[in-house]
Write a structure and sequence with these properties.
Radius of gyration: 16 Å
Number of strands: 10
Number of helices: 7
Number of domains: 1
Largest sheet: 7 strands, parallel
CATH architecture: 3-Layer(aba) Sandwich
Order of helices and strands: EHEHEEHEHEEHEHEHE
Oligomer: single chain
CATH topology: Rossmann fold
Helix content: 25-40%
Strand order of the largest sheet: 1-10-9-6-2-3-5
């Protein structure tokens, strides 16, 4: 796992976007995965400015709450539309949003079939305060081969979502989500993992320096042949 540490979140996000866009530029008609949340603000703000052949590219959505309307401030479909898809200079060939409002099982199957027929060149991801990867909370399922599955969100994950300001109180945070599986994330040729803030420092230490274990889902990234970790100084403070 290649690690780079930057003084500020802005420098971190710019470097992550540059590395990811350079990788995408090497391939014809590439497909990629984008994550959401506060950790991705800087990366996405720079990625949308990259000089890429966007109309040749296909994007996939990493995870989404179940039962949350797209109008809700915490909706990841809303987030990705407002912060990424609608701000690109030209439209993508396709972007496959996850809809968690209706039949979540059917949605897992629908988007899972699409991504299983695709080689993902770059996955832009983050690490949660509890070490989660996407919404795969500990203990994560490292074995399932389905591309998307329904997961239960643990209390630590739900507290993080409330703490970041997406929900007014803990009880408002959904208890389930659609998440890309660990094995599907690991299938990407390159993983760009961006993690800012001191509140993530313990998770970063455990993921980078600890054993590979489902109790720290992001630790699986140690086994990826091309995972590039971008940190600000706060997130790297315990390394």
């Amino acid at each position: 796992m290649e690690q780079q540490i930057f003084k500020t979140k802005e420098e971190m996000g710019a470097a992550a976007a540059l590395a990811g866009s350079a990788r995408l530029a090497e391939v014809e008609n590439p497909s990629f995965i984008v994550a959401t949340g506060a950790s991705q603000f800087e990366t996405l703000s720079h990625l949308v400015k990259a000089d890429l052949d966007w109309p040749s590219m296909t994007g996939f959505h990493l995870d989404e709450y179940i039962g949350l309307p797209i109008s809700h401030p915490a909706s990841f479909r809303k987030y990705l539309w407002e912060r990424f898809v609608s701000t690109l200079p030209l439209p993508l060939k396709a972007f496959h949003f996850l809809d968690g409002e209706k039949d979540a099982e059917a949605e897992c199957e629908r988007v899972g079939k699409l991504i299983s027929e695709t080689q993902i060149e770059v996955a832009f991801v983050g690490i949660g305060e509890n070490g989660h990867l996407a919404f795969n909370d500990p203990p994560a399922n490292f074995e399932t081969s389905v591309p998307y599955h329904i997961v239960d969100l643990d209390d630590a994950c739900r507290r993080q979502q409330q703490g970041e300001g997406w929900f007014p109180d803990f009880d408002s945070v959904p208890k389930q989500a659609i998440s890309m599986s660990i094995r599907e994330i690991m299938r990407a040729k390159t993983i760009i993992c961006t993690v800012p803030d001191s509140r993530k420092a313990e998770a970063v230490k455990n993921a980078v320096a600890g054993p590979v274990t489902p109790e720290v889902p992001a630790s699986i990234l140690q086994n990826h042949p091309d995972c590039r970790l971008f940190l600000d100084e706060a997130a790297a403070s315990l390394l």
